[in-house]
Amino acid sequence: MNNIETMSDAGWNVMRIFWTLGQGTSSDAIMYLKRKTDWKEATVKTLINRLQKKNFLKPDQSARPYVYQPVIAESEAIHQNVNRMFDSLCCMKKGKAIEDLISNSDISKGDIDDMMNLLKAKRETAPEKVECDCLGEV
Amino acid sequence: MNNIETMSDAGWNVMRIFWTLGQGTSSDAIMYLKRKTDWKEATVKTLINRLQKKNFLKPDQSARPYVYQPVIAESEAIHQNVNRMFDSLCCMKKGKAIEDLISNSDISKGDIDDMMNLLKAKRETAPEKVECDCLGEV
DNA sequence: TCCCTACGTTTACATTTGTAATCTTAATTA
DNA sequence: TAATTAAGATTACAAATGTAAACGTAGGGA
């Protein structure tokens, strides 16, 4: 619920493995990460350790090798992550930033349809203009 | 063009002042930031300094107090920032992440319209499904 | 002209992160 | 059972970051 802890970039890549597998051992992570990074085994182990300390990963210690499971759902983590980043953007620029993301991302037809419905609804109550808030309260 | 340097969160908030003002002195930044943070003056000065070192801010030193100007455009910085973050997301989840952003952001009617047009065009060539790439190359 | 002060520069220091080596211990095999 | 190995834990260390104090100096006012 209240995960104030923030996930590092490197840690994020480790979590993606466990999110996708559902669960796994450290050697699973090491194996898959070898495909996309040139991290040494020790590096992955460190990352797994830090992820545990931050309570993003929980090991089942009843047997060895431990089987690690994500404590936080991927969708929840993504939600927190992208919104935290957007919080730091100028309000006025968020629309264009989203357009930029749409342009640069592969999106399935289904997701596009969902998005268009969402936008259609949102348009009803959308403001004419969103004001910049970069200079703080008036 | 090739700004490999990354902007810290705190630095980002300083840049927003100069982006919005176009240019300004350190006391401008200190003044406006006092409205949204409880940073000491010294903190803002440090941040300005680091931003210079990273070549995000350039001072006009022909007179005192220096007048600082952004070296990188806000739109460009936002572009780099949001796309870098999206690069770290699972391909398959990007669509939903954008929907999440749309839901949680104030967006003007104009931007919504632009977005819908963009989506309409994008839909023509959109894939049925986007595959997860979290486990690396096949 | 001299001092004060605002503002730029340097130094400080704890924490987080990237990246890894090493140590320890449980488990497997000879 | 002894030796080897795999994997978890501890230690390492530089760079970046958040946060700020202290220092030095040019320019304005007494």
Structure explained in plain terms:
- Chains A, B: Belongs to the BlaI transcriptional regulatory family.
- Chains A, B: This is Transcriptional regulator.
- Chains A, B: InterPro entries: BlaI_family, Cu_transp_CopY/TcrY, WH-like_DNA-bd_sf, WH_DNA-bd_sf.
- Two copies of one chain form a homodimer.
- Chain A has two domains: 9-70, Arc Repressor Mutant, subunit A (Orthogonal Bundle), CATH 1.10.10.10; 90-138, no CATH class.
- The first copy, chain A, is 55% helix and 6% strand.
- Chain A contains six helices and two strands; from the N terminus they run αααββααα.
- The mean pLDDT of chain A is 95.
Summarize the structure.
Chains A, B: It holds the Pfam family Penicillinase_R. By secondary structure, the first copy, chain A, is mainly alpha-helical.
